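Hey,
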Amino acid sequence: MDNEPADEVKEYIDHRVISANEAMAGIFGFDVHRSSPPVMPLRVHLEDEQIAVFEEGDPEAAVLNPKATELTAFFAFNRLPEQQIKEVQDRPRYVDMPLKHVYNSKTGIWRMRKSGQDVIGRVHMPSALAGEVVYLRMLLHTDVSRGAQSFEDLKLGRETFKEACRHLGLLQVTLISSKIS
């Protein structure tokens, strides 16, 4: 048995398989991994359930000062005084924020895009078993998210996101009938 540490880079290169299409794209110098327009992933999470990042040995800092996410920064953006002047119809939905805005992950703030190409926002699809997160995602894709300043705004005065979706008619009711012989 060899006690030398494995060279993971060499193993990766030795075991990598390149398809004919990928090889030809490389030979001709085509960009294989560029996407146009660019796509920005937007996180979705329930209130106070965002991923916590902290320095080793200091987990309390993550709890006391949670890092802003694209979603919490979206709510903060809608609370800005200059945003209150605009009509609700002019405010972007959460999924449309990257079109005209840039998110700075260090400051946790959305700001207007000064120049450059528009970016498409994509909210990941949570597992169907994720419960309320699935319904929150549905609401973030509707006009209800325009101007929303908190998670509570998206609930539309209902108890849960699911009830808000049902109120808006976003849920399809399927009745299963059984034959009685």
